[in-house]
Amino acid sequence: xxxxxxxxxxxxxxxxxxxxxxxxxxxxxxxxxxxxxxxxxxxxxxxxxxxxxxxxxxxxxxxxxxxxxxxxxxxxxxxxxxxxxxxxxxxxxxxxxxxxxxxxxxxxxxxxxxxx
Amino acid sequence: xxxxxxxxxxxxxxxxxxxxxxxxxxxxxxxxxxxxxxxxxxxxxxxxxxxxxxxxxxxxxxxxxxxxxxxxxxxxxxxxxxxxxxxxxxxxxxxxxxxxxxxxxxxxxxxxxxxx
DNA sequence: TTTGGATATGCTTTATAAAGCATATCGATA
DNA sequence: TATCGATATGCTTTATAAAGCATATCCAAA
Lengths: 116, 116
Prior knowledge:
2 copies of one chain form a homodimer.
Chain A: E1 8-18, E2 21-24, H1 26-38, H2 41-47, H3 52-65, E3 71-75, E4 81-85, H4 87-113
Antiparallel strand pairs in A: 1-2, 3-4
Chain A binds a DNA duplex through helix 2, helix 3, strand 3 and strand 4.
C-alpha cells in the first residue's frame, strides 16, 4: 500500500565502564581471547594485527580497572615469559558475551517494531 | 564479604543500518535537530562545530538511504536559501530517540544483574 | 651465570579521516 | 535581471591516533 521498500536493521556497540574509564569492549575481549589462545601478549597482538604497544597498554588499563586482574604476566621462564588469563579474565569474556547476546536479541526484537 | 569495590556501568551506541550503509546514528540525529533549529545546513554545522563539508555529505547520505528524504534543500529565496526537515525527518528523530531510550532502560536493567 | 623470548617504555614515523579553503552554482525575491 | 546567502564540490592542508622502531629490563630454567 505504502512505498516502504528499503530494509533497515539495528546495529549497536556495547561496553562496560568503570568510574575511571572504559573497561571492556569488543576489542579488549578479542584481545583477551587471543592471549588465552596464544599464551603471550606479543603473539596475541600479532595474531590480530595489532601493535604490541597497544595490546600491552590495553592489558594494563584493563587490569587497573578490574577488581582482580584479568591477565597475569609471566616474566622469565623457559619460554622467556608470557601472559595468561586469570579466572577473572575467563569470566570477563563470558559475561561480556552474555551481555552482547542479550542486547542483540533485544535490538532484533525492536527492529521489527520500527517503521521508517 | 567479597572484595567488590569498583562500580561498573554499561555504555552503548546504537544506529540504524540500511542495506547499503549506515543510515542514522547519534551524530546524524543531532545534525537533523540543528537543521531544524537553524534552518540551514551551514548554520547547523557551525552550531555543532562540524565542517559544512561533512554536514552536507551526511545529509546527502541520509536522504539517499531513506524512503522519503529527511532534509529538504531550498535554493534561492530572500535569504539565499536554506534547508528544513521534512515530516519524515521529524519522525526519524522521534523514532531514534525512542529506540535509544528503550535500549538505555534495558542496559540499566542488565547492569544490575552483572557481577564483575 | 648464561640463555631466551617475553615484558616494558620512550621516541619517531606514518596513515588517514577531518577540517579548511576556494569557487562555481542555484533561484525566489524585490 | 541583479542580489543574496545558501547549496554544491574539487582540492589542499592539518590534526592526531595508530603503528613502528629501538632498546632496556625481567627472571625461571638449565
